[in-house]
Write a structure and sequence with these properties.
Length: 177
């Protein structure tokens, strides 16, 4: 009988990867389009905002769809094949073409209606201001108009989820009243 050393942290890491993969697939905005690749990202936490950078080389702003909620950013787009006429065929090509999507869960809630964006040299930079309120909206950015776009609110805010306020009374409340 062979004994195998149990490594609980390795099993937890495997479970986490499987869960992340499952939630990435469930959060897919466009389930009909096959996803062929994901852009690389950096997420930086500053005192008053999160700064998200995504490498999306070879993509035009009109081919991007960016949706931002309080807890996540979804970047969807398509890298189109370049139609070139050349004499010889490729020996090797590692460029990825087709649809892509990246869902980035945010560590804190943000003001999605105050997002600042810049798309330059194939790098998308979003400045996401942090928030402490309890309202939720989804915002769609339109990058096709300019390289620095203002967000447009597409959904009405969800009703507040505040707890009822407690009242003060001089007499103790009876459970039997």
């Amino acid at each position: 009988m062979t004994l195998i050393r149990w490594q609980p942290f390795q099993e937890m890491a495997t479970l986490r990867r499987q869960m992340d993969r499952m939630f990435d697939e469930l959060a897919s905005v466009n389930r009909d389009a096959p996803i062929t690749w994901k852009p690389a990202i950096e997420l930086q936490d500053t005192e008053d905002s999160l700064i998200l950078r995504a490498q999306i080389p070879g993509i035009e702003a009109k081919d991007l769809d960016i949706r931002i909620s309080r807890e996540a950013v979804v970047i969807t787009g398509e890298r189109r094949y370049e139609k070139k006429e050349q004499e010889g065929g490729y020996v090797r090509s590692e460029f990825r073409y087709g649809n892509f999507q990246r869902v980035i869960s945010l560590p804190v809630a943000i003001h999605n209606d105050r997002v600042q964006s810049e798309f330059k040299d194939g790098v998308l930079m979003l400045t996401l201001p942090k928030v402490t309120s309890v309202r939720d909206r989804v915002v769609k950015l339109n990058l096709a108009d300019s390289t620095s776009a203002a967000p447009e609110v597409t959904d009405a805010p969800v009703a507040d989820t505040k707890k009822p306020e407690a009242t003060e009374s001089a007499e103790p409340a009876s459970v039997w009243d």
